[in-house]
Amino acid sequence: MSRVAVLGLGSPFGDDRAGWEVAQGLGRIPWAEHGSDSVVTVDCLDRPGTGLLERFRNADYVILIDAMRSGAPAGTLRRMDPDEMLADADSPSSHGFGLEQTVALGRALGELPSNLLLFGIEADAFDGPRISPALEAAMPGLVERIAGHVRDLLRGGLSANAHGV
Q1: What are the DSSP calls for 31-94, one per residue?
Q2: DSSP state at residue 140
Q3: Which residues contact 12 (CB under 8 A, 6 or more apart)?
Q4: Whether 115 contacts 109, CB under 8 Å
Q5: CB 3.0-4.6 Å disulfide test: which of 49, 55, 78, 140 passes with 97?
Q6: Could you tell me which residues come within 8 angstroms of residue 84 by beta carbon, excluding any fewer than 6 positions away?
Q7: With contact defined as beta carbons under 8 Å apart, do 65 and 6 qualify?
Q8: Can you say how many angstroms the Cα of residue 114 is from the centroid of all Cα atoms in its chain?
Q9: Alpha carbon distance 139, 122 (integer Å)
Q10: Which strands form 38-46's sheet, in the order they lie side by side?
Q11: pTM recorded for the entire structure
């Protein structure tokens, strides 16, 4: 059975919650209608660190969703493959041992899935009780973008890799 794991990363604080919110939106989609041979799992993880590597197991395709800060305007969407994630490996993370460091460790240990993709959304503020208005406005578009990507994967039998879709 082919599996797509969608993992929303974050915390309960401010814009860092965006990965969870997008994942929750994706979790409401009835994926079984798109192919009985494939399973889509959607989970929200609170600062998983190296525990993220365990979540990569048993999935043919892993999609990560996370708030990020690169200097782009808040709400900007980015799609990154592992090489692009590793290029940002020196950036600070609110997740402790950050996503980039986890990807680097997974690559060194040979534990990265063959198909790994990050959908990032540029954050404004990582503190406070609510997601900023710029992210609120951008999140529905990110849900639809990722949903379209997953539908394409399911139609193609998961044969496309992270770079080709």
Answers
A1: GGGG-TTEEEEEEEEES-GGGHHHHHTT-SEEEEEEEE-SSSPTT-EEEE-HHHHHHTTTS--T
A2: H
A3: 46
A4: no
A5: 49
A6: 118
A7: yes
A8: 15
A9: 11
A10: 38-46, 2-10, 61-68, 116-122, 77-80
A11: 0.85
